[in-house]
Amino acid sequence: MKMTELRPVTDTAAATPAPRKPALPDAQTVTEVQHYTDRLFRFRVTRPPSFRFRAGEFVMIGLMGDNGKPLLRAYSIASPSWEDELEFYSIKVPNGPLTSRLQHIRPGDQIILRPKPVGTLVHDALLPGKRLWFFATGTGIAPFASLLREPETWEKYDQVILTHTCREVGELTYGRELIEDLRTNELYQELFGAGFEKRLHYYPTTTREESHKMGRITDLLRSGEVFEDLGLDPITPEKDRAMICGNLAFNLELKALLEDWELEEGANSDPQTYVVEKAFLD
Ligand SMILES: Cc1cc2nc3c(=O)[nH]c(=O)nc-3n(C[C@H](O)[C@H](O)[C@H](O)COP(=O)(O)OP(=O)(O)OC[C@H]3O[C@@H](n4cnc5c(N)ncnc54)[C@H](O)[C@@H]3O)c2cc1C
Ligand SMILES: NC(=O)c1ccc[n+]([C@@H]2O[C@H](COP(=O)([O-])OP(=O)(O)OC[C@H]3O[C@@H](n4cnc5c(N)ncnc54)[C@H](OP(=O)(O)O)[C@@H]3O)[C@@H](O)[C@H]2O)c1
Q1: How many Å lie between the centroid of ligand 2 and the Cα of residue 266?
Q2: Ligand 2 within 6 A of 250 CB?
Q3: Which of 89, 113, 137 is the last residue of a domain?
């Protein structure tokens, strides 16, 4: 498939305002904003032609602070590397220096986008395998939203399993809509060859509000419930690769679990069988 064929059609495309002349350093124009809950939203911005990244990486973005200096934070890029625009999925932290303001952006506004994406949740940091597990909590799903829409993911692995654990049902909406788009949008159908249902397993769970599957993914893995529910064999270092992105306690617990199953942590310079990144700093 040609990358140029992978262009999603959105309702808002026609309403997208023409980019304004940059007034900030590294300025990009907001093209779309969607709010999910009082704590979560996603937005898209223009992409500089020179901006290159690998799916799974993060970049520094922000707004100009009241002191006249850029107020920047790390954000995973949620869109795939072939799209014309960049998408981000964001928390709204009450009184958070950046997100208390960022949550009010509208199409036509400008944000700062620094030019150097980095990160460990990249294909280059993993050895070849058969199955790829994406383990996320909260906004930690963002890098996987990029990787799931990347042809390389489907060329390298037979099966991908996305688990997403949030406190409440409403916090799963971004992930649900992403999976539904992958399932139904004809742009992606070529990626799935043998069939969507066989190649992608989606396993959302909640911990504080009733849903069809409750519990922390760590507990569900330990008890074997995940494998039973999905009809999959347990994780082994021979066939499985994993990427982890969530809060610190979750990352540490899942790392320990994967290491019990003899997976080893990799890095860009030393590819192994799993990689991990914090979804935010505590
Ligand atoms: C590698 C990396 C990638 C990141 N990617 C994203 C991303 O894609 N989307 C995103 O929303 N944030 C992401 N973050 C967090 C982001 O950098 C900011 O912390 C966040 O935007 C809040 O900024 P703030 O200035 O409002 O508050 P901050 O002062 O930065 O944070 C205040 C407190 O809010 C909590 N918090 C911050 N971010 C989150 C979060 N995402 N989920 C739950 N609690 C949080 C923490 O307890 C933190 O101490 C990432 C962080 C890192 C290190
Ligand atoms: N989500 C909300 O409705 C809400 C509302 C107001 C304020 N906040 C605040 O916002 C901050 C971030 O909240 P968040 O919900 O986005 O993120 P979070 O606290 O990182 O929780 C996200 C998910 O990860 C699970 N989790 C936490 N530790 C884990 C571990 N060791 N192993 C496996 N799973 C684990 C949580 O389960 P558990 O529920 O079992 O911990 C929850 O389902 C917190 O400081 C919180 O107090 C959140």
Answers
A1: 26
A2: yes
A3: 113
Q: Is 76 in the pocket of ligand 1 (CB under 6 A)?
A: yes
Nearest ligand to residue 137 Cα: 2
- Overall domain count for the chain: 2
Are residues 104 and 9 both part of a single domain?
yes
Alpha-helix runs per DSSP H in the chain: 99-102, 142-148, 151-156, 173-184, 196-199, 217-222, 225-230, 248-260
60 within ligand 1 shell (Cβ under 6 A): no
Residues 148 and 177 in one domain: yes
Helix (H, G, I), strand (E, B) or coil at 92: coil
Q: Do residues 137 and 92 both lie within one domain?
A: no
DSSP state letter for 115: S
Give dist(CA 40, CA 44) in Å, integer. Answer: 14
Kindly state the tokens that stand for 193: 């060859």
Which of 93, 139, 163, 207 for a ligand 2 pocket mutation test, highest count of atoms within 8 Å of Cβ? 207
Tokens of 126: 């993993």
Tens of pLDDT, residue by residue over 194-244, are: 688 899 999 999 999 999 999 999 999 999 999 999 999 999 999 999 999
Q: Is residue 17 scored above 70 in pLDDT?
A: no
Q: How confident is the model at residue 180 (pLDDT cuts 50, 70, 90)?
A: very high
∠ CA 85-88-89, rounded to 5°:
145
Q: Strand, helix or coil at 15?
A: helix
- Please identify, among 91, 113, 135, the residue that sits at the C-terminal boundary of a domain: 113
By C-alpha distance, which of 142, 17, 159, 164 is closest to 74?
142
- CA distance linking residue 3 with residue 191, whole number of Å: 12
Instruction: Classify residue 261 by its DSSP letter.
Output: T
CB 41 within 8 A of CB 34: yes
